[in-house]
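USER:
Class, as today's exercise, take the chain set out below, and explain how the chain folds.
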Amino acid sequence: MYGLPPDLDGTSELRASGISCPECAGCLAVRREGRGALFFACRVGHTLSVDDLLTGKEEKIESDLWATVRGLEELIALLEDLDAYEARHRHVATLGPHPDRIAQARDHARRIREVIGEKRPIDLASGGRA
């Protein structure tokens, strides 16, 4: 898979890219404009410059990582509550106890938080070098 289509240099027509729109996840098309600047557009009408696309991708990735952390933390809370519920109501089976699942979810959430903490935004003014 490619990000930019290989035949982009020879045309100013929109070509399908291998990149999704950071706003709606639709397929982005790309074309050259002027002296080689790139213009991206998706089917629903979002348009992006290269800078907009890079920033949008970084923001979307961070948002998705936080959604994963939230999901893991909700899973941990549910599993812990199910274990407590089953302990109070011995006749109700909740497929527990869940200590291994809880430990794994905690470890995953911790590691994803570390990745988020290491994030360094692209410095577009210096050509992408922070």
Observations:
- The helical segments are 50-88, 99-117.
- Residues 57-124 form one domain.
- The mean pLDDT is 90.
